[in-house]
Write a structure and sequence with these properties.
By secondary structure, this protein is mostly beta strands. The protein has a single domain, classed as Sandwich (Jelly Rolls). It is 0% helix and 31% strand. The protein has no helices and eight strands. The chain has strands spanning 2-4, 14-16, 27-31, 44-48, 68-72, 75-78, 81-84, 99-103. It has a four-stranded antiparallel sheet with strand order 4-5-6-7, with no helix packed on it. A two-stranded antiparallel ribbon has the order 1-2. The chain starts with a strand and ends in a 6-residue tail after the last strand. The relative contact order is 0.26.
């Protein structure tokens, strides 16, 4: 399920959610098929407890203040607040065909 405007005209509004919750222990793969180089920003990826049917889609998930963990650049954000500044691979460096996994360890956020 997604809510996407034109990536050429606006650097936000590319929020995409699965159509169902991830099961504990499930791996979820994300692959980048295209990138817009016009903007200086990153892919952001994470998990949320929010239902995609009832969520009022924000322009970016960094604006969600509850039930959300995500990575942006190489920082970790929990409920809209940065909790780790330098973590792992910098998502700003990803290229087309890059693949990465989300691993749902349990159902607690």
């Amino acid at each position: 399920m997604s809510f996407l405007f034109s990536a050429i005209d606006d650097f936000n509004n590319g929020v995409v959610l699965t159509t169902r919750p991830l099961r504990p222990g499930e791996l979820f793969e994300v692959r980048l098929d295209r990138l817009v180089r016009k903007w200086a920003g990153s892919v952001e990826i994470g998990v949320t407890t929010h239902n995609p049917v009832t969520l009022q889609y924000p322009s970016t998930m960094t604006n969600v203040r509850s039930g959300t963990w995500m990575m942006t650049g190489n920082g970790i954000i929990h409920n809209g607040q940065t909790v780790i500044d330098e973590y792992g691979l910098n998502l700003d460096k990803l290229e087309v065909r890059a693949r990465f996994l989300i691993w749902a360890l349990n159902d607690d956020l």
